[in-house]
Write a structure and sequence with these properties.
Elements: E1 17-20, E2 27-33, E3 42-52, H1 55-79, E4 85-93, E5 96-105, H2 110-130, H3 133-148, H4 154-162, H5 172-182, H6 185-196, E6 204-210, E7 224-226, H7 230-236, E8 239-244, E9 250-255
Parallel strand pairs: 2-6, 2-7
Antiparallel strand pairs: 1-8, 3-5, 3-6, 4-5, 8-9
Amino acid sequence: MNLTKAKPIPKELEVPIVHLVLEQGKRYYVHRTATNEDEVNVAVDYLTLVGPYESRRNSHLDLFVQCFNTAAYHQLRTQEQLGYIVYACKKFSNDIAFLRVLIQSEAYSPDHVEERIKLWLASVETQVEEMTDEDFDESKEALIQSKLEKFKSLAEQFSSWADEIRTHRFDRWAVEAKLLKEMTKKDLIEFYRTYLKESINSTTFIFKLYSNKFPQQATENDNVISITNVQEFQSAAQKHAVFYSPSNEPRKDLRF
């Protein structure tokens, strides 16, 4: 019974999800200096582009984070002591997925921190290959159970479903859990090599916050795009708009 007498939004009133079209193989930088002259901390937010949502690809990214977020903390925080805040996670923005490594440091410059992040990401391929089947299966099962876990409250259910309103993926967790059951360590290695391993095809966003202690250093690289004005960059960049239908698939894909 439809108590609210709700009707679908007319197609002409639908609001699309708008994406910026990025150049493949480029590194996009945003540099900022802390306005507080006494600030001693710097920060690096390192984002590796994975791409628009696709259930299998998103499941791979979730599994990668499940397997290696603790390893990132152990290497970059415990062993190298780069900073107090260190974590690796998935960032999902406007239906686009990234692998995110975020570090705040008082002891090292943003440039040094960035290099250490890149070296850690490069080392992960060996870690995946050397992972035992038991450890892989344990991480996979823990992720599956978290996706199938029932909502603890109505507020939690509302918040989760609200995130899917525009894409209609209300069964996303069940779909991804089913895909995860079939995934192998070979699949994870292939995902890493395709999307996360630094190459001529990888696209990254790096946000760096400098301080008076560690000022910005000038760098030149053909594959680097420095963004000095975010608003101007967004306005000038090519874009495409995606409209979603209740079938969970993009209905239109318009570039402008």
